Amino acid sequence: MKFCNRLRPALHTRFEAFNSGFRALGYKESSADKCDVLLIWNRRAMDHTLAKACEARGGTVLVAENAAWGNDFMGGHWCSLARGFHNERWRFKQGGDERWDSLNVPLAQWRPEGGEIIGLPQRGIGLHGHAMPLDWVPKGCTRIRKHPGTRPCKPLEDDLAQASKVVTWGSGAAIKALMWGIRVESHMPNWIGEQDNTDDGRLAMLRRLAWAQWRIAEIESGEAIRWAI
């Protein structure tokens, strides 16, 4: 079996972790047009073309992205991994409750209504139907927090300190907001963080979400790749 890693080599730790993981599973490195498993970051432009060709010949496309709950969640170093596309709830195999439950993450009680309603837009990267549309506007908001990109910005938790609700297309910032007890209105169809703002709904979503988020060490060992494939 052969793999092709299309992640940026400049992000050395992540790039080499995936290479090590594939090799631990017995895969040999190959070109994008001959591999059995193609690893890409998000899905756009040339990588989308290569992904379609890989799928057409019966191969598997794995899509890595920043972890939905943040790359430094719980003091770790995480990455999101799914098949075909990222950020969708049906794009990865789901196990039991134990993966999330073992993290022992405290979930805040829901905040009372009447606080700020804050819009959380995204950069709009990816394909139509998955990326946030350029004309998407979160309505009914007190204010909109611009996507920070790589710029210095007010810490998210501080910026949402008075929020009782956020409106998003489908951002990782909204996943964090849910953990802090802030209700979320999402507009992305089949978003990985979709839930109903109840205790049971939030917990079920996080237990599902955990199976698409992997520590770098789990990628390096091959465990995450084996699960995703």
Could you please describe the fold and organization of this structure?
- The model has no long low-confidence stretch (mean pLDDT 94).
- Helix 5 links the parallel strand 8 and strand 9.
- Strands 2-1-3-4-5-10 form a 6-stranded mixed sheet. A 4-stranded parallel sheet has the order 7-6-8-9, covered by helices on one side.
- It contains 8 helices and 10 strands.
- By secondary structure, it is of the alpha/beta class.
- State the order of secondary-structure elements, H for helix, E for strand: EHEEHEEHEEHEHEHEHH
Question: What amount of the residues lies in strands?
Answer: 15-25%
Main sheet? Answer: 6 strands, mixed
- Terminal Cα separation, in Å? 12 Å
- The structural class is alpha/beta
Helix content: 25-40%
Low-confidence stretches: none
Shape: globular
Query: How would you write the strand order of the largest sheet?
Result: 2-1-3-4-5-10
User: How many strands?
Assistant: 10
Rg is: 18 Å
Helix count, DSSP H or I runs of 4 or more residues = 8
Mean pLDDT: 94
Summarize the structure.
By secondary structure, the protein is of the alpha/beta class. The protein has helices spanning 12-24, 45-56, 98-101, 156-159, 172-179, 199-209, 216-221, 223-228, and strands at 2-5, 28-29, 37-41, 60-65, 78-83, 116-120, 143-144, 163-168, 183-186, 213-215. It starts with a strand and ends with a helix.
